[in-house]
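Ticket #4471: complex job returned nothing on first submit. Input attached below:
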Amino acid sequence: MRLRSGCVGAGAMADAKLRLAQWLSADTWCSGETIAAELNLSRTAVWKQVQSLREMGIDVHAEAGRGYRLARPLELLDSHRILAGLSERQVALLGSVELLTEVDSTNSELLRRSRDHRHGLAVFAEQQSLGRGRRGRSWYSPYAQNIYLSLGWRFEGGHGEWGLVPLVVAIATARAVQGLGAKSVAIKWPNDILLDGSKLGGCLVEMQGDISGPCTLVIGVGLNVSLQGGQARKAIDQPWVSLVERLPDVSRNRVASGLLGSLLEHLHNYSEQGFDPLRPAWAELDALAGHDITLHSTVGKLRGTACGIGEQGGLLLETAQGVQEQLAGEVSLRS
Ligand code: BTN
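Support reply: We reran it on our side without changes. The output follows.
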């Protein structure tokens, strides 16, 4: 098992920021002077790093005569704790874990790696500067608040073998969230993770190479763990929710283990047995079944009643013309 921590393309600034984030606490005030001495920084550099933590959405209190204190405790990811939370079987399925402080996107990072070394490689980041969502959207990824994970998984056959992976990943993610104790989780086809109807996370599955041959998919999952207001409200244009709102004591490292373990198990089982054993899980988690929806696709809008998923993992939509399987598009619920 290989464990690596690092920071891609951010250099000394990110290092000072990380050291400061680790040094500051939520319970005790630390004077600027003490921090400067401990971290070998000037007082001005401490102030600049405090500002950059705030820009990243981390609330730091400052008071004359007392110094600095975090508004809320910050739990940084720790690869040893993530591994310790995996079962033996899950560890056996894992290749290695890398923990990055800052990266453009964990998916892009994995896509840059050699295809031969991607299978089973899990990359977590504390922050993404260019986090990517589905359909060309960006994924808001502030520092040390959420989970950003990409995992490489190899399939020997073509599209027929891995075509339903986006749904498998959604089920694995939803089950991981249930395992943490949040029961009201659901999936909005194809792979939005909802908690009480608001978006908790999303999945982005990417492939490179020949659609009909062996390939290693890059499977990205983002989960909001303790996303805080302010910046997030400006950056995200749909109702969202964080796990801490339902599970106030949730640990980011536990979420990371639970998610990684669940992905490893579900991908392995899907590679061995296909999607059929997962159909009952989909039916249980389906947020759309029985609802009147609009499907927005490149060919226009289609209205109908959602009624599960078809053979190819497409959305089954009942319209006046009967039930059709729709393979692509964005769903909005009609009230
Ligand atoms: C969506 O649009 O719902 C999918 C969001 C996927 C975000 C994750 S975060 C980890 C990985 N890296 C990325 O750049 N995107 C995915």
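The chain is about 30% helix and 30% strand. Closing as resolved unless it happens again.
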